[in-house]
Amino acid sequence: MSKDFLEHKAFEELFDLHYGNLVGFVYGYVRDEEVAKDIVHDTFLTFWNVFILFCKILFVYIGSELRFELFETFAGGGGERTGGNRVVGVCCRRVGRV
Fold first, then answer.
1. Is 77 helix (H, G, I), strand (E, B) or coil?
2. Among 40, 57, 68, 94, which residue's Cβ finds the most Cβ atoms within 10 Å?
3. How far is residue 41 from each of residues 11, 25, 98, measured CA to CA in Å?
């Protein structure tokens, strides 16, 4: 499966799960069903595009941090090889996984 297909599928599932409730919520404010549908649709698209951009930026950031840690671990410190577990631990702590 392609990455684009998986992204589309994830968006579709999220949209289907929350669309009806959000349209009802927005309708309570605007009292026009078509306007409520447009607002929710546009909000979902904006959210999804920002989310995808955030994921791409995070991927680049984590990749650059990992490259830096690998360089520091294996090439820095007088050329002493300290092992891969330190790299994984440091990177995981930086992204809040440990």
1. coil
2. 40
3. 12, 13, 36
